[in-house]
Structures are given as structure tokens and as C-alpha cells.
Specification:
With about 55 residues, this protein is mainly alpha-helical. Helices cover about 25% and strands about 0% of the residues. The termini are close together. The relative contact order is 0.19.
């Protein structure tokens, strides 16, 4: 499956919140199931609703 990037920022403006329990992984494929803190962070920082765009 190909990723369609709908929001992006320059590397120098990377989004991160230290000590916030955000989900991270080095795996190629990962799931955000059960990761409400990460979903909330992404939706806020990138001004989107994941449920509206996930197919």
C-alpha cells in the first residue's frame, strides 16, 4: 500500500512532545489502535481528523 501524505512539515519543524506517552516504533508497519494520546496529538498538530481520512 502506498502512503498518501496529506500534511507535512519541514524536518526543522518536526512535531514532538517530550514525555507525552506518544507511540513510536521503528517497524515499517504499525497500528494506532489503542493509542488515543498519539491520535489526539496528530489531529491537533496537523489539523485533521484521522477517522475522516482512514480508508
Amino acid at each position: 500500500m502506498t502512503v498518501e501524505w496529506i500534511r507535512a512539515v519541514e524536518r526543522s519543524a518536526a512535531k514532538w512532545k517530550a514525555k507525552s506517552v506518544l507511540y513510536t516504533t521503528q517497524l515499517i508497519r504499525a497500528s494506532l489502535d489503542g493509542q488515543p494520546n498519539t491520535i489526539e496529538f496528530l489531529e491537533k498538530e496537523f489539523d485533521l481528523r484521522l477517522r475522516d481520512i482512514v480508508r
